Amino acid sequence: MKKVLNQLLVIVILFIPLTRCNQSSHNYIDNSIEVDALNIPIDSTQAYFPREMFPEVKIRYIENSDSTYTLKKDIIKDSYEDYKIEWYSEFLYEIREPLLFNRKIEKEIYRFSWLPSFNNSMIFRIEAQNKKYILYWKTLDFKVQDKVHEDSKTISETEWLNLKKLLKAADYWNIELGGNERGVDGSEWILEGVTTTKYKVISVWSPNKGAFREVCSFLTELSGLKLDLY
């Protein structure tokens, strides 16, 4: 009996580091997706996000002892917000953006997609690799046959580190998925992040304050554009 317990203990010890490694690994790589040389899907039907990133949730409000309420999200198993995935993916395909989740990369990338009700939709994508930091931004002009305007610039290491501080303040990698309540007039704020080991996307409807808004706003400010974000 003692011998069996010792064997089980060895198995558990060996398994623990493997489990921790799996939790931090990139789980969404799919090399079967057909893309061009720029990693842009060959057609508009390809989803730009793993379904697991957009679970359908049931929202509950729990009353606290001080009469305030805490929002609780319960993920509905095997149910996803596919309409959001389709909508956001169509936009990213039209604006000719690459996928960020389907292959291993040697960069750290963050992409803010802004889909407003009354203005042209835009993306701001920042890429870091080997101490080089480049910001790209694009505008999808619906008034000129969906023409895409694009530009880029190199940013400093200080600006990159300031972005990282904002991401840390927002606790980006630990934000709960799902539960993005929408209004009538406003905008979708979609922030993707990818590193050599992980990928995440969070969407929020018209955030008017908070750390998440500060991250996205900072990306637009780096471009030098003066935008009335709402």
Helix content: 25-40%
Classify the secondary structure makeup into a structural class. Answer: alpha+beta
Poorly predicted tracts of residues? 1-25
The largest sheet, given as strand count, sense and whether it forms a barrel, is: 6 strands, antiparallel
Q: What general outline do the C-alpha atoms trace?
A: globular
- Strands, total number: 8
* SS summary, helix count: 4
Features:
230 residues, alpha+beta, six-stranded antiparallel sheet, two-stranded antiparallel ribbon, 4 helices, 8 strands, 31% strand, disordered N terminus
Task: Characterize the structure shown.
This protein has helices spanning 2-23, 82-94, 157-170, 211-223, and strands at 55-63, 69-80, 108-116, 121-129, 132-141, 147-154, 187-194, 199-205. The protein is α+β, with helices and mostly antiparallel strands. The strands form two sheets. A six-stranded antiparallel β-sheet has the order 6-5-4-3-7-8, with helices on both faces. Strands 1-2 form a two-stranded antiparallel ribbon. A hairpin with a 5-residue loop joins strand 5 (132-141) and strand 6 (147-154). The model is unreliable at 1-25 (pLDDT under 50).
